[in-house]
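Write out this protein's structure.
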Amino acid sequence: MKAEDIRRDGVADVSRMLEGQVAGVTVQNVSGTFGAAPKIRVRGATSITGENKPLWVVDGIVLEDVVNVSNEQLSTGDPSTLLGSAVAGINPDDIETFEILKDAAATSLYGARAMNGVVVITTKKGKAGKLITSYTGNFTTSLKPSYSSFDILDSYNQMKIFNEMEMKGWLTYTNVLQQSRYGVYGTMAKELGYNPATGDFNVVNDPEAKAQYLDRFARINTNWFDALFNNSLRQEHALSLSGGSEKIQTYASASMLQDQGWAKGNEARRLTANLRTTFTPNDKLSYGFLANAYIRDQNAPGTLQRSTSNQGGFNREFDINPFNYALNTSRSTPIYNEDGSYFYVRNNFAPFNILEELENNYLDIKSTDFKLQGELKYKILPELTYSLDAAYRYVKTSQDHMIQENSNMPKAFRAGTIYDVDGENSTIAAINPYLLRIYNNAEAQPVSVLSYGGFRNRGTVDMDNYTFRNSLNYNKKFGEDHRLDLFTFQELRYIERNNTEYKGVGYQYDR
């Protein structure tokens, strides 16, 4: 398949270009975030629990995954999937052809890993002739989601339901204040308490005062899609040069991608460079060199790995996915107070505002990828060709999860204690699962292990990859109807991954 036939403008990741283009190949996008690996299956799955992803081969060299992402991680939105796409650093304009393999020949060439299929990519080479300069620019816009696409209550009808629940005794202020999460009724229940600073009650506990307080929330009708999403613009620019003589041909390219991010907290930048030179001194000998470089800088909302609950289900604590939040949060909840400050609800026993959270809880992803490759072909006989391929690749990635002191997670680890921003509360402390219980002392008050500061979780992966392959190919035709093909090769491959992980507790970002 020629790349120009299946190219999809606006799709930055090469792996997503295969979607709906090739018979027997299914591509399931588990995340719209740049760099996240899609779930690709070539002619179905081969294993229930094992790996099912295909092998990527670029210019004859296996492109190793920097991070090995399991089937479960692909399906659950694990943060490691943001580094899971092996081909995120390839400029689509540099691709000449695609080829999908899944047969015995593929397994003999690439080993057992080829049983899930092989996607072979051949990149462009220089062509003899005058210098050709090519520029490609893609501009893609994504509009904000709209509530018209979803069946979600507006704030007035939501407050009617809350009011009915209160009238029937299903919603009581004492009960609400003891929950790990609450919205506007919880904030009102909190305001009903005596305020020592003013010497009065913020909200008087009578029907008229409470109705007046709640009236604002019934009319506010917050548009969470408007607050958490952008009418984003993604721009891609690619420039290439191709030309040369009959004996020397060169292809060079550079590209830049800038994605402002559809959801707030998302942003990505990618730079690629490619240089390929081919030498053909005579009819028997040809050789060439290829160099690729790729730099990526990306931000995304902070997320933790999924965990299994005691009931056997799954849970992702402190999830701040903007789309999930917009779908599942009541429109009666405001973003700001009337004075312009953030309006806080409670989440995980601690104050929470989604915009403040996106500012203080985020992932910083950086990746650098460099590959140098050499190839040589020599015709020993007209029917016998010797080939040599050698490549070196170095990749350095880092994923920094910044959880600053003002985000919800550190506050949850202090909720109910003397370090709580709302003051000490023994009732909350007794039920807060993020506090430390003193062993063999049931009467002791739970304590916080995080008096000050936040968290910082940093992981890095460095990969060195060497490939060296010799091969002989014999191709002879007998008459008009018979041909003999023999192929033998020897390959040496070396892969070393160095993983480092750092988990900082009490990390103080302002010092």
